[in-house]
Specification:
By secondary structure, this protein is α+β, with helices and mostly antiparallel strands. It has a single domain (5-149), classed as STM4215-like. The protein contains 4 helices and 5 strands, in the order H-H-E-E-E-H-E-E-H. The protein has helices at residues 5-16, 19-24, 79-90, 146-149, and strands at 29-31, 40-54, 57-72, 101-116, 124-137. The protein has a 5-stranded mixed beta sheet. The two termini are 32 Å apart.
């Protein structure tokens, strides 16, 4: 049985395994929120997920993730370079997903913004990245109909 979370886990593992991205975002890659004290990191959030069925079963999954480098303005980080590295890794890239075969992975929208810090309004957070669509199929092992398996004895 496949686990839909394997797709997001593979995405985080790919980003987290890249030394160049980790040099730009040394606090790491996280789902939805970073730990307290982090100032340069990447957030991966599931925006949308849809299953596509064929012949009464799930054939592939279509997921949309928001992937953003986030940096505190005083941290000296380069969110533009981090977003470019994220794009180099994900746009048309390969992804090894437990239980699935990757069909396509690409950015469908650029994302950029600045936020005022919730605790200290004199600080700003920069966000830069994009929404990435990941489509993965569930491999099907073909089986012969039961009447063929039984040697045509009907």
């Amino acid at each position: 049985m496949v686990d839909s979370s394997a797709i997001g886990n593979a995405l985080v593992a790919k980003l987290g395994g890249d030394a160049t991205l980790l040099a730009l975002c040394p606090n790491g890659i996280y789902f939805d929120e970073a730990p307290p004290g982090a100032t340069r990191f990447v957030i991966v959030s599931l925006v949308f997920a849809q299953d596509e069925g064929v012949f009464g079963g799930r054939a592939f999954e279509d997921h949309l993730y928001l992937v953003e480098a986030r940096m505190l303005s005083t941290s000296g980080g380069d969110s533009k370079a981090a977003a470019a590295r994220i794009d180099a890794l994900l746009e048309g890239g390969v992804l090894t997903i437990d239980g699935y075969d990757l069909m396509t992975m690409h950015r469908d929208e650029f994302a950029r913004g600045t936020e005022v810090d919730a605790i200290d309004p004199s600080l700003r957070w920069t966000r830069r990245g994009g929404r990435y669509q990941v489509q993965a199929s569930i491999p099907v092992i073909p089986t012969a109909p039961s009447w063929i398996q039984s040697g045509f004895s009907q």
